[in-house]
Amino acid sequence: MTALLDGPRPVSLPVRGATLPTPHDALPAAHGAWGGWEPGTTASVLVAASHGTASPAGQDAIAGLVAAVAAARPDLAVVPAFVDVQSPAVDAVLAEADAEARIVPLLLSAGYHTRHDLAGAAAQRPGTTVSRPLGPDPRLAAVLERRLREAGLRRGDRVVLACAGSTDPAGVRDCQAMARMLSERLGTGVEAAYVSAASPTLAEAVARDTAEARPEPRSLGESLRRSLGRAWRSRRPSRTVVATYLLAPGFFASRVAGCGADVVTAPLLVPGAEVPAELVELVLERFDRL
């Protein structure tokens, strides 16, 4: 459990006129640049703010998550809202709220939407707070690993974490932190790559030659081991496997699916499938600050 500050101190946000308490001492460094993380709440309205998508499958997947959160906490009013594409907009939901609200970004990293769109909406309604986004978090790494196993991940595969991308350095750091968490779970290297706005691009990561120069063997035994290893790899060549670090189907997920990798996993939410318990837990934890 993250430690709390002795007391909240107001910090100016990028949105004019808005102030929110300072972050937890123990939050990841990627979040330290913005003072918008609220350490606690007395709110009774959870505004589940997602990006929005034109994909019916993506809409169903997000709706399933919101419904699962509402079912887990019948004491809360859980209301969906969107920063783009879909309606209702976050500010419209806040205008209709009849009690103190807290916005939980159904987003996987910090970025423009958290720092400006959601902070701006909160500033228009006194008492409204904004939680951290869902990622990075080890529970997301658990869901990513599950998707990889479902897709047939095998020993020796090269894993690339496909992230949406952001021009915000904090968002890129969040994705890199997520890649490290997944690497720890898998026991192998994981490279973060981006669909847009950051580098390396997913296309670059998938196309990169995975062969690495190796030093000459120092002994007959080492030479034999390498020879056997090459023989095994020739029978079972390594593959590039992309872990889709996106919440739901949509435009970016379609681009990831067509990236040319040997294997591409489903996103975290799969329409028609059970909502991962880790995601429900994360949303409620972000709301409650536990």
Give the SSE order as H and E letters. Answer: EEEHEHEHEHEHEHHEHEH
CATH fold-level name of the largest domain: Rossmann fold
Helix content: 25-40%
User: Uncertain regions: pLDDT < 50 for 5+ in a row?
Assistant: 1-35, 209-215
Rg, rounded, reads: 21 Å
Write down how many β-strands occur, each being a DSSP E stretch of 2 or more residues.
Answer: 10
In short:
The chain is of the alpha/beta class and 290 residues long. Helices cover 37% and strands 15% of the residues.
Structural description of this entry:
There is one protein chain. The protein is an alpha/beta fold and 290 residues long. It has 2 domains: 140 residues, Rossmann fold, CATH 3.40.50; 127 residues, Rossmann fold. It is built from 9 helices and 10 strands. The strands form 3 sheets. Strands 4-3-5-6 form a 4-stranded parallel sheet, sandwiched between helices. The chain has a 4-stranded parallel sheet with strand order 8-7-9-10, sandwiched between helices. Strand 9, helix 8 and strand 10 form a beta-alpha-beta unit. It starts with 9 loop residues before the first strand and ends with a helix. The N terminus is likely disordered.
Features:
Sirohydrochlorin ferrochelatase, metal-binding, 290 residues, Rossmann fold, single chain, 9 helices, lyase, 4-stranded parallel beta sheet, Sirohydro_Cobaltochel/CbiX, 2 domains, CbiX-like
